[in-house]
Amino acid sequence: MAQSKQSEQEEPVASLHWFIVDAHLDLAYNAIGWRRNYRRAAHWNRAQEAGTSSVRENGLCSVGLPDLVRGRVGVVFGTIFMEPSRRMMGDSPIFYRNEQEAHQHGMAQLDYYRKWADLDEHIRVIGSRKDLQDVLTTWGLGNKKEPPPSIFSMRKEPKPIHQVGIVPLMEGADPILEPKELERWAERGLRIVGPAWTGTRYSGGTHEPGGLTKLGRELLDMIASLGLILDVSHLSQSALMEALERFEGGPGRLIASHSNPQRIIPTDRHLPDEALEMIAQRQGVIGVVLFNKFLKNGWGTGDKKRDVTLDHVVRAIDHICQVTGSADFVGIGSDFDGGFGSESAPRELDTSRDLHRIGDELLMRGFGRENVEKVMSGNWLRVLRTALP
Prior knowledge:
Layout: E1 20-25, H1 27-33, H2 42-49, H3 53-58, H4 65-70, E2 73-80, E3 83-84, E4 95-96, H5 99-119, E5 123-125, H6 129-137, E6 164-171, H7 182-187, E7 192-194, E8 203-205, E9 208-212, H8 214-225, E10 229-231, H9 237-246, E11 254-255, H10 273-281, E12 286-288, H11 310-324, E13 330-332, H12 356-364, H13 369-387
Parallel strand pairs: 1-2, 2-6, 3-4, 5-6, 6-7, 7-10, 10-11, 12-13
Antiparallel strand pairs: 8-9
C-alpha cells in the first residue's frame, strides 16, 4: 500500500549511536501467537494491547522495527520458540504436545521471517556472510563505495534504507523431528540451534535437570557437521558441561545467546564461571540478558523497575570480561519481549531504541571505545563472519 508520508522505519537515525547486534528476540512467537505487529513501533503496540491478555502475560512491548532502526540495532537473532504443554505459562498461544506439533509451529515461525523479508525492504534474513555484509552495507559498514552524486543532478537523493538482518535461532530443539532432519532446517535458513529451553527430547533444560540424551549427542554431531552454531543457553548444568566438552564445531560456533553469570544470579538458568571460560576458549560469545530478575538477585516480577539500572548491566558485562580475561567474549542478548516487558527491564531502557545507552555507560565507566564496540556488536559479528557459509 502506498504511503503518503515517510514510514516510521525511515526516520532519521542518530549517527552517534553504537551499531548494535541483539542476539535474542522472540519475534515470530509474539507476532504469530500474540499478533504483535513488529512493523510498527513498540509504543504503537502498547496502545493496541492496552488491557489485553498480551500485556498480562508478556508485559509492555519493547520491540518494533522503527525502534530497532532508530536504535541502530542492525542485526538480531530471531528465535523459533514454543512452550511444551507441560510447562505452559499462563495463556500461551503457541505450545506443543508432541514433536509433530512442535515441528509444525517451528516451520511456521521460520516461514514468518522469510515472508516478512519478502514484504518489507527493511528486513533481510541472514543465511550467509554475503547476506550479513549486505545488511552492514546499508548502515555504511560495508565495503561498497557509491559514486558521489553529480553536481548537475537536480534530483533529491533518497534517504538510505537501513536493513535489519535476522539470523534464525531455534530455542529448544523439539521441532527437529530427528537429528538428520536438521539438514532440511539448515537448507531453509536455520543457523543457530539451542537444544533446550526446559527439557527436550535432546537435553535437560532450565528447571528440568538431565544431561544430553542419545538423540542430543547425535544432534550436536549434526550441528557440527553442518557448520551451524550451537547455543548453550537454557541447557541444564550437566548438559551444559557435557556440550562444552563434546561439541566439535570449530571456533566461534558455540555461544550462549542470552545467559548471565551464575555468580550474580545463582540458578541453573545461568552460567558458572567455568562455562564462561570454556565458551571464551572456543571463541564464542555470551549475550547478557536485560531482564531485571536476571540482573539483580532477589528482584521479582512486579518489583519496581527503577530498582535495577545500567549499573547492574555493566556489572554482568564486567564479570564476564574479568573471568574470560578480555572484552572479546560478551555481547547483548536482550530477550526483550521474551516473557517480560519494558516494566521489567532496567530503569534507563524502555525499548530497543535505548540499547545504545549500554555502550554510553560502558564508555563512561572506563571501557575503551574499541572494547565497547566489541560488546555492542563486534563480538557477535566476529562469530557470524566465522560461522556463516
